[in-house]
């Protein structure tokens, strides 16, 4: 049985959604966000103090997009993966890596300097600059979706799950009105998936049952 450590609405949501899409068994441990501050004992398991943390025997993964690919490898033939040799394999890998390094990264700075820092340390100009950075990079998503319903391979894949977390976080930050129409429609389609909806409910119930605030972490602070 794999163990997933997760905080409400954190990047680890990618892993939770992947588990639900693939139908793999797992144990879900909920942590207050940020766990390195709010639950110091977690540092004994993950010195980074970040989520996700996925444990399977001696295997340890802490990068959400890597977990998406790892879970796909446990289900041979899953349509959620694009295989080497496929014409769109390179694009699939590029979206997986781009999802965090290019799309989510600037949003974390917007979140930090508008929500998580105390008022005297907030930096509106930094937040504005990185919001512009995000929207500049989001043009790649809008372009890719202008002629197709998914990012690659003509179907829903782990790349869509990975990239969609950036959309989720952007929406929490009230930035979704500035998305292009193809991105808006794409996000609506993804949210309609049964596994996505299950993941939200599982997350909420697990948080309540484990004594963690179920409110999405970007909304915990004004």
Query: Which CATH C-level class of the largest domain is it?
Result: Mainly Alpha
Oligomer: single chain
Instruction: Categorize the overall geometry.
Output: globular
Task: State the helix count.
Answer: 8
Low-confidence stretches: none
What do these coordinates show?
The chain is of the alpha+beta class. It folds into two domains: 2-78 and 195-219, 3-Layer(aba) Sandwich (Glutaredoxin), CATH 3.40.30; 89-191, Glutathione S-transferase Yfyf (Class Pi), Chain A, domain 2. It has eight helices and four strands, in the order E-H-E-H-E-E-H-H-H-H-H-H. It has a four-stranded mixed β-sheet. Helix 1 (13-22) packs across helix 6 (158-172), helix 3 (64-73) runs antiparallel to helix 4 (89-116) and helix 4 packs antiparallel against helix 5 (124-145). The longest helix has 28 residues, at 89-116. The termini are far apart.
A few lines on this structure:
The chain is an alpha+beta fold and 222 residues long. The chain has helices at residues 13-22, 35-38, 64-73, 89-116, 124-145, 158-172, 181-191, 194-209, and strands at residues 2-6, 26-30, 53-56, 59-61. The chain has 2 domains: 2-78 and 195-219, Glutaredoxin (3-Layer(aba) Sandwich); 89-191, Glutathione S-transferase Yfyf (Class Pi), Chain A, domain 2 (Up-down Bundle).
């Amino acid at each position: 049985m794999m163990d997933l450590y997760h905080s409400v609405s954190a990047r680890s949501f990618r892993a939770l959604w992947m588990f639900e899409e693939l139908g793999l068994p797992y144990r879900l441990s909920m942590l207050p966000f940020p766990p390195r501050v709010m639950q110091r004992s977690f540092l004994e398991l993950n010195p980074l103090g970040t989520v996700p943390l996925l444990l399977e025997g001696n295997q340890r993964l802490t990068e959400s997009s890597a977990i998406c690919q790892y879970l796909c490898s446990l289900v041979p033939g899953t349509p959620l993966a694009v295989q080497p040799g496929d014409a769109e394999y390179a694009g699939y890998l590029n979206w997986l890596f781009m999802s965090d390094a290019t799309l989510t990264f600037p949003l974390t700075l917007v979140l930090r300097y508008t929500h998580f820092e105390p008022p005297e340390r907030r930096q509106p100009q930094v937040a504005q600059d990185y919001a512009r950075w995000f929207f500049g990079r989001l043009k790649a998503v809008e372009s890719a979706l202008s002629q197709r319903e998914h990012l690659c391979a003509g179907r829903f894949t782990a790349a869509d799950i990975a990239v969609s977390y950036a959309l989720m976080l952007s929406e929490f930050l009230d930035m979704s009105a500035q998305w292009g129409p193809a991105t808006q429609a794409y996000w609506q389609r993804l949210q309609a998936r049964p596994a996505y909806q299950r993941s939200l409910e599982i997350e909420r119930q697990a948080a309540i049952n484990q004594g963690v605030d179920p409110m999405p972490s970007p909304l915990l602070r004004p």
